[in-house]
Amino acid sequence: MYLPDFDYQSPGSLKEACQILAAFGSRARVLAGGTDLMIKMKHGLLAPDVLVSLKNISQLAGIGYVQGRGVVIGARATHNDLVNSPVLQKKYLSVCEAAHHMANNQIRNVGTVGGNIVNAVPSADLPPILIALNAAVKLVGADGERELPLESFFTGPNRSVIGTDEILSEIVIPDQTSTGSTYMKFGLRRSGALAVVGVAVAVTVAGGVLKEAKIALGAVSPTPMRAVKAEELIRGRAVTDELLEEAGVCAAGECSPISDIRGSKEYRQDMVRVFTRRALRRAINEGHV
Ligand SMILES: Cc1cc2nc3c(=O)[nH]c(=O)nc-3n(C[C@H](O)[C@H](O)[C@H](O)COP(=O)(O)OP(=O)(O)OC[C@H]3O[C@@H](n4cnc5c(N)ncnc54)[C@H](O)[C@@H]3O)c2cc1C
Asked: Which domains, and CATH codes, for the chain?
């Protein structure tokens, strides 16, 4: 399998990159780690005339804490950058863990958080935990920039609100009151498997009561989704095993998975029930955010 011919551009600034994208429109594609794009090109599913590499845009690298904004993750950060980030390890270990359980070490070394989001694959591992943590994304285009909740970024499988001249530049996890969060992935193998079901939760617990809960599901609907009825059901109630099971049943009823080679609709729904209950218990018990 050979790559089709294309022009390669490697601008040094976001502004320049957006100008190239604007000039070529749908004939150009952003190239980050290439772990998805290159495969699609080799299989003849995509044949852009121009690839605009992010490799020389240093502004897109790095993970840090910015007072008043929260943890800011550059879109070019790789999965292993997330795993090894001291800031994330201290503030949101759940994000490091989600990244750690993705793919294999080779892919984690080059695949980026920006690519994982913009791909908009329903089974992607990072969107659920970032949505549970209330993350926002910044999109920079030739005519300006905008910031929106990650939750409203996705519009369908492989589809999102990003424009052809826009680049996802950063992901921002705002300061929050959560006392614990976690992402639990159910795949058909222990490593290197895509999620059959992914459940992320962030909880705020005080005095044995669930003050607040966010539950985000992956691989069980056309886009990552919040289980808002389950969140509502448990908000303000004392933590019991029965309550967490009720939340699982409720979340399973809220999603509409497809049946495919990796699992039937009914199986996926039952896994949502089980993993929502387990993820809530883990986030409540472990208490790390
Ligand atoms: C063997 C293997 C295992 C995998 N396992 C997993 C897994 O366990 N979990 C999982 O979630 N995914 C998995 N993936 C999918 C993939 O590796 C990830 O989604 C990865 O994060 C994609 O990032 P990338 O930087 O390689 O994106 P690229 O391939 O470079 O780009 C992907 C798409 O996003 C666009 N894009 C990239 N960055 C930006 C940006 N900043 N702004 C605008 N557009 C952008 C590109 O134009 C392209 O359309 C796997 C892939 C492989 C090959």
From this structure: 7-52 (3.30.43.10), 61-173 (3.30.465.10), 180-286 (3.30.390.50)
- Global pTM? 0.97
Residue 1: predicted pLDDT: 77
Strand partners, 29: 51
Smallest CA separation from ligand 1 atom 28, residue: 34
- CA-nearest residue for atom 9, ligand 1, is 102
Ligand 1 centroid to 213 CA: how many Å? 29
- Of ligand 1's listed atoms, the one at least distance from the Cα of 194 is 8
* Ligand 1 center–CA 34 separation, angstroms: 7
Name every residue whose Cβ is closer than 8 Å to that of residue 110 and which is 6 or more positions away in sequence: 33, 34, 35, 78
User: Smallest Cα–Cα separation from 87: which of 77, 60, 203?
Assistant: 77
pLDDT at 129: 98
For residues 183, 171, 211, 180, the Cα torsion angle rounded to the nearest 10 degrees is: 40
Per residue in 156-207, pLDDT tens? 999 999 999 999 999 999 999 999 999 999 988 777 788 999 999 999 999 9
